[in-house]
Amino acid sequence: MFESERKELVEKLKERKISDNLVLDAFIRVERHLFLPKALESHAYRDVALPIGFGQTISQPFTVAFMTQELKLEKGAKVLEIGTGSGYQAAILVEMGMRVFSIERQYDIYARTREFFDQKHIQALLKLGDGTIGWEEFAPFDGIIVTAGSPSIPTSLKKQLAVGKKLVIPVGDKNSQILTIITKVDESSFIQKEIPSFTFVPLIGREGWES
Ligand code: SAH
After folding, report:
1. Whose CA is nearest to atom 19 of ligand 1?
2. Confidence grade of residue 211 (pLDDT, cut at 50, 70, 90)
3. How far apart are CA 124 and CA 108, in angstroms?
4. Is beta strand 177-186 parallel, antiparallel or unpaired with respect to 161-172?
5. What is the domain count for the chain?
6. Residues catalogued as catalytic
7. Which of 31, 81, 82 has most ligand 1 atoms within 8 Å of its beta carbon, as the pocket-test mutant?
């Protein structure tokens, strides 16, 4: 279903400088409409964020593609996602051949996505909890992606990133954030690249916003 819509979406992503074939192929294969409430299915391949219930959203496809491309992952990489939400971003990473670990703080969202992943045999390790403190047990990660807006960069996430790898996180106030891409040069030094004007729902937790 919706195959031609998915192809059109991928063409739009290419026009906006998404060129990583691993990312583009995943967008062809992952069926975004399955990650949405039934009533919104027909809007799934528009390049917009959409509500998924519980006050949360599925990110805009361009944003998912852009952030994923910025991680510069190689197949088999161990990736941590903060903010599982609908599971779409996690499913894109799984489709790309990554080992995915994803944390969600809201029980209802976590439970629904977990059931959906089981049903569809999407192989990712999901956890209920505060992602701002990372997932120590499986660190270090070859990439960390935060899909909610944070007031600052959580120290735990910088610690749990492997040397030479990237953390992609929106940082700013609650209305607008700068997409911040951090490369860990060695245990204590980082290079930072910033791309303005993104809008995410807030990252709530010990190293994020207060609830
Ligand atoms: N990646 C998701 C985007 C979901 S929106 C997708 O593809 O659909 C961001 C999600 O982050 C929300 O579900 C929200 O509940 C969750 N979130 C906010 N703060 C969090 C935290 N500290 N730890 C884990 N999840 C968090």
Report:
1. 203
2. confident
3. 18
4. antiparallel
5. 1
6. 59
7. 82
Is ligand 1 within 6 A of the CB of residue 204?
yes
Closest C-alpha residue for ligand 1 atom 17: 83
CATH number (domain holding residue 57)? 3.40.50.150
Instruction: Report pLDDT for 190.
Output: 98
pLDDT tens sequence across 56-97: 999 999 999 999 999 999 999 999 999 999 999 999 999 999
Ligand 1 centroid–CA 148 distance in Å is 6
Whole-number Å distance, alpha carbon 84 to ligand 1 midpoint, is: 5
Residue 207: inside a domain: no
Spatial distance between the Cα atoms of 14 and 157, rounded to a whole number of angstroms: 30
Note whether residue 85 is domain-resident. yes
Alpha carbon separation from 56 to 128, 162, 170 (Å, rounded): 16, 30, 16
Residue 100, domain extent: 3-198
Q: What's the one-letter identity of residue 63? A: T
Ligand 1 centroid from CA 201, angstroms: 8
Say what percent of the chain tops pLDDT 70: 100
* Residue 192 buriedness (CB in 10 A; 0-12 / 13-18 / 19+): exposed
Is residue 210 a part of any domain in this protein? Answer: no
The tens digit of pLDDT for each residue in 126-151 reads: 999 999 999 999 999 999 999 999 99
Residue 204's pLDDT band (cuts 50, 70, 90): very high
Distance 210 CA to ligand 1 centre (A): 14
Pick the residue whose CA is nearest to atom 26 on ligand 1: 83
